[in-house]
Amino acid sequence: MTALDEIHQFLPCVTPDRWIDEAVKPENLCLLLTDHAHCEKKAASTAMTLMFRYVDRPDLLNKMSRLAREELIHFEQVLAIMQERGMVYDHLSSSRYAAGLRKHVRTSEPGRLIDVLIIGALIEARSCERFAKLAPFLDEQLAKFYRSLLKSESRHYQDYLHLAREYAGEPIDGRIDFFCEVERELIEAEDEEFRFHSGTPV
């Protein structure tokens, strides 16, 4: 089984074709890349936050340190592609996706950590799935770049899920199923705002 096969098994649904149709419109390319860059920066920030909050967990520190570095490299790569194409990177409002997942995070430990790690796994897995689904419809440069991200993004998903299971000290399949169902609703529900992790376009 490939890493992408594993991700498809993990995710509760596939990206709707209507989202792909919207994403590949030439007039949305700058928006797509801008939000992609923001997502990479936020992913690095999330990893750093975990490193500062959980300083007593060596496995987490090592995995999140590597993840943060890789996400920042991806951020720089997206910026470079945008600059080559004369696109301007600017502020952008966040999609409802991450906030919709995080509003269910428990407030007490270790539940809080476990939930944040599960959400991290879902976000990385969804990113990977969308990179793969978008690539065939993009120009050669972008298709090659998005395919190049699949290996690291799939490893990030695995790292988050491994840490969640390791630190839980008990089975977490029920909690994973809960967040998967929340994720399904966010992806399949109609969404008026187009973003990299937005739902089905209206």
UniProtKB/TrEMBL annotation:
One of its GO terms (biological process) is tRNA modification. One of its GO terms (molecular function) is tRNA 2-(methylsulfanyl)-N(6)-isopentenyladenosine(37) hydroxylase activity. InterPro entries: Ferritin-like, Ferritin-like_SF, tRNA-Hydrxlase_MiaE. Gene3D superfamilies: 1.20.1260.10. It comes from the Bacteria. This is tRNA-(Ms[2]io[6]A)-hydroxylase.
